[in-house]
């Protein structure tokens, strides 16, 4: 499916036929026909009639108002198009929003269960069409809303999931084609059985799944929360849903294409185009259950399928022919009564959770015991990977659809016969068993940004006091947990080793008058960065100066060489990277020992982004928010220009003693 990504850019972009007025509401006296539209109060979204692609049929839809490329995000009458322009959308008695054809027949109507005396329909600035009482703006009292019935697009604030109280299920369904918004073959939906996960299916056949939510994100995605994008999974006794939010200045959406690909798009104002940030499925291993039960898929291997350790192919002949559908079986049967153990696997997409059980507060040690005491339990892991891990997830069936990741994967402990563990039973970094000796103390490490955010950047208003080694601050974590943070003072005589010893000592102490030590943050002092050309020459500094420094670091990481120590035919590292890029030889920049073990497409993209960051002119460099999108996305990148400090070694030795005349 990789080759389908670029053409799909146009899968939901259509020409809108009308010019809008300023109204955002449909009332009993104000309707929409083929000659007018309504626009949300902030001007973000517009609703009216349109014809997709080459079709002559008319549909009632919602699209972005401020974006030059018309992009439809919701369609009312997907299954019942109008064959002419005689349709009218209006409020009919007893307060129902309806699309009425030229002969007075109802083409489509909002499924409201109650009405009010003054019912209106309003297009919100989120893109949500709501039916409500004219005098009641409380979302809890809305009679109906389009966000509950998404088509092929998920917008910020939409819920994708299921309400267990009302039975309402919100899912994405593809169009039949780029010209036909009728429901197609593909569906992206939430499977709440066991522990929830999201499934891409064609008819009733699973094609791809996200894996379970681990507290940060789904294990198959890289959409980690950041200042411009946040996502969450809410799972209660009443509902389960996924939703995402973006910075107000950012326009982003998820689409399920008519070809069956889940895509995240971001609008770039500078280039006036949609940029593809992510697609699912991404590679062959994303195909559901490719390697069969107890199989593991690894895109770096050839063939990609293998058996879990201590398992063998069920049919060796079929396996040799590349037919992995029958999967793998245990080399040694389990012996629950006499004791089994567990093998630890790291960096995995967790197995299908349809037949699983979970608990949000159980520790990993308790989780292990629960699995060990139940002979039907086949594997266990932490439910939440944050702050060292918490919660418990157990599997009670064959392990299906596992994949090995180089990043974003999760640890899982798989049950095997104790005889398979041998001398690993008592002491092993790769084995986690009920017979193992007590492990060394483990303490979660917190990122400095998390600590700074919890204390309002170590605000004086959060300061509780100060001791001999530094001040203590009150903090609140994202989970509303109150903490006390001791910050080691620069003026303290306590060094890093003393700090580590103190942390270990306190962590081992248990007393009713002592609070629990949750974790620590060990982050060294700031490092020197690389000067940008405008700062070195003119003393000018801006946010683009740090972007330049970041770009140099990216190229250093990829090449395994320091810029200040590198020379190749009298070129510095930036000049060498630029020359290789222009000669289509960027692969030669990659550190040779890493070439066979890395994803070449991702590394080449990093080189490209690095060169964009080190361009001579600050205005040509991207912002760091754009860098985040480019590194995590898969869309086309702009061509870089000659980097700053592009000089031969005999002209520039240090990267700092450069005159204006020497700058190129």
Automatic annotation (TrEMBL):
Coiled-coil annotated residue ranges, if any: none
One biological process term in Gene Ontology: recognition of pollen
Keywords: ATP-binding, Disulfide bond, Glycoprotein, Kinase, Nucleotide-binding, Phosphoprotein, Receptor, Serine/threonine-protein kinase, Signal, Transferase
Domain Protein kinase: start-end pairs: 458-664
Record's signal peptide: 1-22
Recorded GO MF terms: ATP binding; protein serine/threonine kinase activity
Reaction equations catalysed: L-threonyl-[protein] + ATP = O-phospho-L-threonyl-[protein] + ADP + H(+); L-seryl-[protein] + ATP = O-phospho-L-seryl-[protein] + ADP + H(+)
Keyword Cell membrane annotated: no
Enzyme Commission numbers on file: 2.7.11.1
Domain Bulb-type lectin: 23-144
Residue span, Apple domain: 336-417
Ranges annotated as spanning the membrane: none
Keyword Signal belongs to the record: yes
PANTHER family registered for this protein in UniProt: APPLE DOMAIN-CONTAINING PROTEIN, BULB-TYPE LECTIN DOMAIN-CONTAINING PROTEIN
Name used for this protein in its record: non-specific serine/threonine protein kinase
